[in-house]
């Protein structure tokens, strides 16, 4: 029988065997032959699979592909989705998605070109010239040109419009060279000026007929038209007319390429607890600006917590005009040494932050981070050497001066009535009381704190946060000319050496030389101890685990988490490299 089968196969050696012939052959194989055949087939299959894998590694690549949608929750309500009017996080978040500027944050602490194809700076630092990319479009398909840029800058400068960005453009003239070229003329050099290029640009054809008084009332603040990565597709409102959600769609003519996630829906919440509940119920996929306590409540699986560096400085700023006690530099140094900042970061921020020893956030100057100055025994020694003795009965240090009543070492801390700041104030209060300092915490609602406490400088010490850019320019916070409202020098600090350093730093175009100036500035501040610098908190962002392309590491404002949103993606595919651009 076997011979007969072989003869049949020989007679058709050039023709592939039929299924019948294969079955017939296999039926007549011995058990040993079947095992050999199976081993050969498996070996061949493994070899082919291995070769395919190697070919994939060598000639194929994983690439992002378009698809899916994202639902994000934000606490707050947008009222002014307009880059020159935005004043809340909700406003700024939406403006960053819908509008684009000449420049944009790169997510790494630097800037990159957006609407701008190129720019140049004159040697004297007074002229900044930008060239627009070709064929730029608004969401309504109208072309973008130099008129739009100059219109936006002039609107931001207009005092009647009351733009929060106005101070950045004072003394700056904008002129049109041609329809793709704009020049900004400064009265004096200002090295961080390039950051002004991130201002979102308004479409002149939409806004040109609005008077300054109508700017904040226009419906285009709620139904914005920009040139950013996403355009408004639909708006949802409550029965009272308040916006509860924006449905956005990707803009196929965005200057940096159409985003890979076609649809994004932003939901707005009255409180973080409502937002967290909706997240746990699976109604949203990501959460912006979540607090540590909010993170601790999350139980839903499939999330990724992004911890981003946010250049904010929180500290207790001393008002030496309000308290004779803290006029003494030794008292200020002792108060600083008595605060265990690492413990504050752990207890208040859950470890999501960096302890500070000076007025600049970590990584700003490029210098190695120094250890904080906590040393309770040293703090006690400083006070005792300066006549502040511990009263065992009251637990408070006292100082006796001839012909004067006995002075108690007492201080009050004023701050906003928010959970994080209240906990910080109470933590520091306990540390200072261990030193023998009578400490009172005074809490205010944010509006009242700004109007009744900060503006009139009515506090002995103020627990507060300062927002510092990546090219920080601490002038507004520490130059003596900024001591009175509306200046931001809340420590009422005056030091001629520091004034000179700050004035020189902001006119120095060379980045490394500017960093050296910031280091000089920081050393002077630490020596004078006008504040107890506490921490720089991380920005916490909850994203879906399958979100890829999120490469942001640092941001100046929460809205900058969207800086590279055009690169975010939910899906990938294996593609031969010859087909990858």
TrEMBL record:
**Which residue ranges does the record assign to the Solute-binding protein family domain?**
112-480
Transmembrane feature ranges: 35-53
Keywords for the protein's UniProt record, in alphabetical order: Membrane, Signal, Transmembrane, Transmembrane helix, Transport
Q: Where is the signal peptide?
A: none
Organism's domain of life? Answer: Bacteria
What cellular-component terms does GO give this entry? ATP-binding cassette (ABC) transporter complex; periplasmic space
What's an example Gene Ontology biological process for this entry?
peptide transport
**Pfam families in UniProt:** SBP_bac_5
Q: Does the keyword Transmembrane helix apply?
A: yes
Q: Which terms does the record give in the GO molecular function aspect?
A: peptide transmembrane transporter activity
Q: Which Gene3D superfamilies match?
A: Dipeptide-binding Protein, Domain 1, Dipeptide-binding Protein, Domain 3, Periplasmic binding protein-like II
InterPro entries, alphabetized: Peptide/Ni-bd (IPR030678), SBP_5 (IPR039424), SBP_5_dom (IPR000914)
Q: Which family does it belong to?
A: Belongs to the bacterial solute-binding protein 5 family.
Q: What is this protein called?
A: Solute-binding protein family 5 domain-containing protein
Q: Which organism is it from?
A: Candidatus Niyogibacteria bacterium RIFCSPLOWO2_02_FULL_45_13
């Amino acid at each position: 029988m076997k011979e007969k089968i072989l003869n049949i196969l020989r007679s058709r050696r050039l023709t592939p065997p039929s299924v019948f012939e294969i079955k017939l052959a296999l039926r007549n194989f011995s058990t040993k032959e079947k095992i050999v055949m199976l081993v050969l087939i498996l070996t061949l299959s493994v070899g082919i699979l291995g070769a395919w894998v190697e070919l994939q590694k060598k000639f194929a690549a994983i690439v992002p592909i378009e698809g899916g949608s994202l639902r994000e929750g934000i606490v707050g309500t947008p009222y002014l989705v307009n880059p020159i009017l935005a004043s809340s996080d909700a406003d700024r978040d939406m403006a960053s998605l819908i509008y684009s500027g000449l420049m944009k944050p790169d997510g790494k602490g630097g800037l990159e070109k957006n609407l701008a194809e190129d720019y140049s700076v004159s040697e004297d630092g007074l002229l900044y010239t930008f060239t627009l990319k070709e064929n730029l479009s608004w969401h309504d398909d109208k072309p973008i040109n130099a008129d739009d840029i100059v219109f936006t800058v002039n609107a931001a400068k207009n005092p009647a419009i009351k733009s929060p960005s106005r101070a950045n453009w004072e003394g700056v003239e904008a002129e049109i060279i041609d329809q793709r070229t704009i020049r900004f003329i400064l009265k004096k050099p200002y090295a961080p000026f390039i950051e002004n290029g991130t201002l979102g640009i308004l479409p002149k054809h939409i806004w040109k007929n609005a008077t300054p008084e109508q700017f904040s009332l226009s419906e285009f603040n709620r139904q914005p038209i920009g040139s950013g990565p996403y355009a408004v597709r639909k708006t949802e409102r409550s029965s009272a007319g308040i916006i509860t959600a924006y449905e956005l769609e990707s803009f196929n003519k965005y200057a940096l390429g159409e985003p890979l996630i076609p649809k994004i829906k932003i939901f707005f919440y009255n409180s973080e607890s409502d937002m967290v509940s909706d997240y746990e119920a699976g109604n949203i996929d990501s959460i912006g600006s979540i607090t540590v306590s909010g993170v601790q409540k999350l139980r839903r699986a499939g999330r990724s917590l992004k911890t981003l560096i946010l250049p904010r400085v929180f500290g207790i700023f001393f008002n030496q005009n309000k308290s004779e006690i803290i006029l003494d530099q030794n008292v200020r140094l002792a108060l600083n040494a008595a605060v265990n900042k690492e413990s504050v970061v752990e207890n208040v921020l859950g470890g999501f932050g960096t302890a500070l020893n000076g007025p600049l956030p970590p990584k700003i100057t490029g210098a190695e981070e120094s250890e904080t100055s906590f040393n309770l025994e040293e703090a006690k020694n400083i006070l005792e050497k300066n006549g502040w003795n511990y009263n065992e009965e009251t637990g408070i240090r006292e100082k006796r001066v001839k012909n004067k009543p006995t002075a108690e070492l007492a201080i009050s801390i004023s701050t906003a009535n928010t959970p994080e700041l209240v906990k910080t104030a109470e933590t520091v209060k306990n540390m200072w009381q261990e030193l023998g300092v009578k400490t009172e915490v005074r809490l205010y609602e944010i509006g009242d704190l700004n109007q009744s406490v900060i503006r009139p400088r009515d506090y002995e010490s103020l627990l507060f946060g300062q927002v510092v850019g990546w090219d920080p320019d601490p002038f507004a916070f520490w130059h003596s000319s900024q001591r009175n409202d509306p200046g931001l020098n809340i420590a009422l600090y005056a030091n001629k050496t520091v004034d000179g350093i700050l004035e020189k730093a902001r006119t120095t175009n060379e980045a490394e030389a500017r960093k050296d100036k910031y280091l000089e500035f920081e050393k002077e501040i630490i020596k004078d101890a006008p504040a107890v610098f506490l921490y720089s908190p991380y920005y916490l962002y909850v994203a879906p685990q399958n979100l890829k392309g999120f490469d942001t590491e640092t941001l100046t404002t929460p809205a900058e988490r969207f800086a590279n949103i055009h690169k975010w993606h939910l899906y990938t595919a294996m593609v031969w490299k010859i087909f990858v651009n």
